[in-house]
Design goal:
Shape: globular
Number of strands: 19
Radius of gyration: 22 Å
Oligomer: single chain
Strand order of the largest sheet: 2-1-3-4-5-6
Bound molecules: 5'-deoxyadenosine, iron/sulfur cluster
Mean pLDDT: 94
Structural class: alpha/beta
Distance between the termini: 42 Å
Largest sheet: 6 strands, parallel
Amino acid sequence: MIPGAPINQLSGSSYHIITFGCQMNKSDTERVAGMLDALGAEVAASQDGADIIVFMTCCVREAADERLYGQVASLKNSKALVAVGGCIGQRDGAELAAKMPHVGVVFGTHNIASLPALILEAWETKKPAVEIISNKEAAELEYPVTGADNPVKREHAWHAWLPIMTGCNNYCAYCVVPYVRGREKSMPFEEVLEETGKLVADGVREITLLGQNVNSYGRDLYGQPRFAELLYALGESGIERLRFATSHPKDLLEETIQAFGEVPALMPALHLPVQCGSDRILEAMNRRYTSGKYLELIEGVKAACKAAGKEQVAFSTDIIVGFPGETEADFEDTMTLVRAVGFAQAFTFIYSRREGTPAASLVDDTPREVIQERFDRLVELVQQSAWDFNQQFLDTEVLTLFEGASKRNNHMLAGRGPGNQTVHAPLPNGAASTDFAGKMAPVLISEAKTWYLRGTLL
Ligand code: 5AD
Ligand code: SF4
């Protein structure tokens, strides 16, 4: 229950949440849904007809930023109460409410716990309710400032996001995150253990630790990172599958790499954004590693996993194409690196100029068509790489944690393998897909496609 809040204040109302951006927003969405449910509101079947529409926003790239403003503007004549949270809420605050008077609530990334009270206030006063705690103020507050004590409505009962830190101290030249989300702030070590214990007791089988750069976890509190130590401690918690996102290569320490070999629950999957394969551009991006160093890290994780019998590590990454000054030779370096790693997945982005970042003042004269053509080549290579990666699972058993029926086919089970690959298996005759939700079983793989594996349940 929300501390101090009367029960059922929102009963009879329905809500719809639209989420953009990163996993932190997905995690925050589960908190928002949990709070609204706890006050008696119900999920609306769609945006149309919902009494409350909540946007969890992202401002990393300009296109998404503009789309959000367009989408909110299109609700001008809607009777619903429109609430805007996430990064755009934090960044634009009262300005957003002034620009779009039909917006009822604007809340910042540190103000999630206040959302129900803000909704009630907006309804009562018929005026916009805005609450933004600045990053400076938030730095003085206890973690978690997002209100982890509040009820969380998890998308899957067996999976939990666990934000162990907020903010970022890295200042990559293209990125707005440090300006919007503020400096790194970690959840105290004991609290992470306590929270994990509660989740395990609640039947959670897989936890994904979240932060903009989890490798720095603990630096703000303890003077040095304690991320590897945290992984070892959580390995003793009874959690069966442990993952984390996101990692900055420059902060991925040897002790963390070793944890892949020594913590059985730590899954053989690592999301390690490389951004670019050219050392010249990496320097301009202020990434503070070289492509050679990146490949060493990859080899280190592979070796640590292999020694522990965890074969086939699934590496995934983020890549930006068209950073100011990127030449064809720089781009070729990216293609070479992608070939060398053999990524299971890569999220590819066209560089987006963000006001206020150091890269915004760089000369950016590569023609749009050239960047698009490079991007298309990269996407094709990434698809090939994902396909190649999946071939090694043919005729092998993949231990799958099932989610239930596949979204497209009721007779097909869907789940995730250790590398987080999607695994499909036909539902056995007479069985209900719901019986499999949250269960783990091996699947003998007979088909390996670009984005999924398929086989028979054993
Ligand atoms: N333009 C394009 N992509 C960006 N990212 C961050 N900032 C920008 C930008 N200005 C990408 C990076 C990051 C991911 C979350 O978003 O690849 O890892
Ligand atoms: Fe942005 Fe770099 Fe921080 Fe990631 S590490 S959030 S890309 S500044």
